[in-house]
Predict the 3D structure of the following.
Amino acid sequence: MNWRLASRLSVITLAILVIVVVTLAQNNKGLFLGASAAAGLQGSDLGGIAAPSFTLTDQNGTQVSLTQFRGRPVIVTFLYTHCPDQCPLTAERLYTALTNLGGDAAKVGVIAVSTDPKGDTADAAQKFTLQHNMQNYWHYLVGTQETLSPVWASYNVYAQGQQQSVDHTLAIYLIDKQGRQRSFFGGSTFDPAHVTNDLKILLKEK
């Protein structure tokens, strides 16, 4: 066989293999995304990407890591205790979503990450927790600017202290048992029933 012809055939064969591999990869990704959408999740589909891990201290002085909840769905949200409106409303709606689950609420991890390093002391976090009946549900994580800001960045949360308040992104992430980001709710006006729906779906998954 002419060496030029052989070379051309090799290039064509390689190109075909690349196309096949790329097509299979896209199809597999599409299958996962399609399965996620078909599951009936009400929040914005996050595609199942790995949730960034972190370790911080909660309102009781206990170190809490996202990875310790592996095998359970997890809610991750971002709040501050002196917030006059949006954060209390978010806490109340999360409480409603969890009480809607009944006994299954104990199978869900709930994490609130502070967006106010200066104002959110452990005492303030405990008080806020009691005010909104979340003592049996969540870990309110506090810390310094240095320990909190990497968590904000990894979850695309903006947080900037003002004179009397904190301007921050309102975000609720639902993470599945495998540690993958699955569903997102923005703002404090989300429907608690939609969060309950998504948690029920994630609880049934392996």
User: Anything to note?
Assistant: Residues 71 and 177 are 4 Å apart (CA to CA). Confidence is low (pLDDT under 50) at residues 1-38. The chain has two domains: 1-38, 44-204. Strands lie at 44-50, 55-57, 63-65, 74-79, 109-114, 138-141, 159-161, 166-168, 171-175, 180-186.
